[in-house]
């Protein structure tokens, strides 16, 4: 089994109320003089109170091309990523030179050399650290990244691995785009990062609460490529977001979860905590409905959504952090938990935890 030694989350420096962001979107996305009442309803319905952005709001109308935006991504991703990894290693009682594998994931910018390469030297990791940069998994990458770290540590039980997610979703906002998909995205997404320090079965963490990863399962749904993702354009990443996503969750998730749990000798009734990516209110409602969960089961996910919005792949890591830090509300020791997220493909990733 893989031991989770620490989970650390950070957010971008500029904090805004949802109303402030709605006003910015109205100025930059809607035609002059357009009726904004539908936009206001959409943003209120997102159940997001505050979000963080990597830039002040008045900067988002001034970019001319994707290259300018991507330069901001690289600089900010290195800064936020360093903060997240340093915090996670400190909480785990480990140093950068203890890290054997660094997995980096993002879907909101690109870099070559990759962000993980830029961080390794900056943080003082060993020259022989193994690196895996991942792009394209989107919101599912926090769960999928943890699953792939687990796969690696099964074969390297003495090693330490770090998973880092940095998502600067605000940099993908498209000005002068009043399409429903873009307006939904402007209602939900925020900027932040999350880092997980994980140890193989024979490497005892020096500190931390050390829940374990028991197993994982991936599920890729056929003929769903246009449900979620990006169209890459001269102005950057233009969101693809089909309103049918919650319907697919309702149709497919219960069977996938039940089959996975049954293979581990478990049922839904055994799960003491559901660590679910905070994808949005309609997605969270669909998860709760599909799995017939009690009303409080996704409270941590809903609270994360309200406080910071959807952080794409970093979102489920923030939910995991908050679940572990919940004090008297923490799941009982030795009981199973399920971490899950969904993303482009369309796909689902399930990770079985033991607290």
Distance between the termini: 12 Å
Helical percentage: 25-40%
Mean pLDDT: 94
As laid out across the biggest beta sheet, the strand order is: 5-4-6-7-1-8-13-12-11
By DSSP (H or I, 4+ residues per run), the number of helices equals 10
Main β sheet profile: 9 strands, mixed
The H/E string reads: EEHHEHEHEHEHEEEEHEHHHEE
Strand content: 15-25%
Query: What structural category characterises the helix and strand content?
Result: alpha+beta
Backbone shape: globular
- Unreliable spans are none
What would you note in describing this structure?
By secondary structure, the protein is of the alpha+beta class. It has helices spanning 18-29, 37-45, 66-92, 115-123, 141-155, 180-188, 245-263, 281-291, 299-308, 315-324; strands at 2-11, 14-17, 50-53, 101-105, 130-134, 160-168, 191-199, 212-220, 228-233, 236-241, 273-276, 336-343, 347-354. It is globular and about 65 Å long. Helix 1 (18-29) packs antiparallel against helix 2, helix 2 (37-45) crosses helix 6 (180-188) and helix 7 crosses helix 8 (281-291). Strand 12 (336-343) and strand 13 (347-354) form a beta hairpin.
């Amino acid at each position: 089994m893989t031991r989770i030694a620490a989970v650390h989350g950070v957010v971008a420096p500029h904090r805004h109320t949802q109303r402030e962001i709605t006003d910015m979107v109205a100025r930059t996305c809607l035609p002059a003089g357009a009726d904004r009442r539908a936009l206001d309803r959409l943003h209120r319905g997102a159940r997001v109170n505050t979000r963080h952005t990597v830039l002040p709001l008045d900067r988002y109308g001034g970019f001319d091309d994707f290259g300018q935006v991507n330069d901001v991504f690289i600089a900010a991703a290195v800064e936020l990523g360093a903060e997240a990894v340093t915090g996670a290693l400190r909480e785990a009682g480990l140093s950068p030179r203890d890290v054997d594998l660094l997995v980096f994931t993002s879907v909101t910018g690109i870099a070559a050399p990759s962000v993980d390469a830029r961080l390794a030297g900056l943080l003082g990791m060993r020259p022989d650290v193994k690196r895996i940069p991942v792009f394209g998994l989107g919101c599912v990458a926090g769960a999928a990244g943890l699953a792939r770290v687990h796969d690696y540590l099964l074969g390297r039980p003495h090693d330490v691995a770090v998973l880092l997610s940095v998502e600067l979703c605000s940099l993908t906002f498209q000005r002068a785009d009043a399409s429903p998909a873009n307006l939904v995205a402007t209602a939900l997404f925020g900027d932040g990062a999350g880092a997980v320090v994980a140890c193989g079965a024979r490497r005892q963490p020096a500190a931390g609460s050390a829940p374990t990863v028991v197993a994982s399962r991936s599920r890729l749904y056929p003929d769903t490529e246009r449900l979620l993702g990006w169209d890459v354009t001269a102005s950057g990443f233009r969101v693809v977001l089909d309103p049918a996503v919650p319907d697919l969750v309702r149709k497919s998730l219960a069977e996938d979860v039940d089959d996975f749990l049954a293979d581990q000798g478990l049922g839904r009734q055994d799960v003491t905590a559901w660590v679910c990516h905070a994808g949005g209110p309609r997605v969270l409602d669909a998860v709760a409905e599909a799995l017939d969960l009690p009303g409080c089961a996704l409270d941590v996910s809903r609270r994360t959504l309200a406080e910071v919005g959807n952080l794409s792949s970093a979102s489920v890591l923030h939910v995991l952090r908050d679940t572990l830090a919940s004090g008297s509300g923490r799941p009982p020791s030795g009981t199973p938990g399920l971490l899950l997220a969904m993303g482009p493909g369309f796909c689902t990733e399930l990770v079985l935890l033991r607290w």
